[in-house]
Amino acid sequence: MNRRTLPALTALATATVLLLTACGGESAKPDEKIPGAGESSAKASASPSEGAAEEIDRPEIKFPKDFRMTWESAEPAGADEKAALKDAQNYMEAINHAVVQQDPEDSVYKFYVVPLSQAQEYAKKTAKAIVDGGWTVTGVMHQSQINVKKTQNGKLVNVSFCQDESAAYAKEVRTGKVLKTEASEKSHYAYSVIMQESSSTDGLWQAKAVTATRGAAQCVGR
Fold first, then answer.
1. What is the band of 193 on the pLDDT scale with cuts at 50, 70, 90?
2. Cα–Cα distance measured from residue 114 to residue 19, given in angstroms and rounded to the nearest whole number
3. How many Å apart are CA 145 and CA 213, to the nearest integer?
4. Rounded mean pLDDT of the chain?
5. Cα separation of 152 and 132, whole Å?
């Protein structure tokens, strides 16, 4: 069997989605123009939308002891940005939940996506590429350089970040063997997740579109 590391599997899934959406490696194009990502450290007071987000009955995301995802601290300026960031994190973790559950149709990531969106297709294709290979995930994925920015009319939020997979690996489900390789620039990805407020659940933000750039210069060595 051609044994691939987890980064190679992520690249395979990303390439598949890019072909499906005809993005050609460029940023996904939602309905609105996304301005340059930026981050603010300004703190906003609690708002009704934050309260609603806390009251949502969310599906549990639980990983085995040998895998975790860590996130660098970030404090977006507004309540919407804070809620969108939290649910972007939930979306990314839900994709790996589908992997550890060995279920590309996992209901958890579907909770965090706009139905039938490119983000839903991306989650499914990413999980399926790994599961079909007979693998699961192990180790640590670290997310850093988190930037959160509303679009020009405020209806969407762009959450961008770097993902370091140098300490995360594929593990054979059948044998439990961990497939380790040397870390390289290909272990780093630049992600952009476009979030949209749910039309049916107050306080919930859902992923609409996502892109991942492998070996992005701004993420290597960070």
1. very high
2. 20
3. 14
4. 83
5. 40
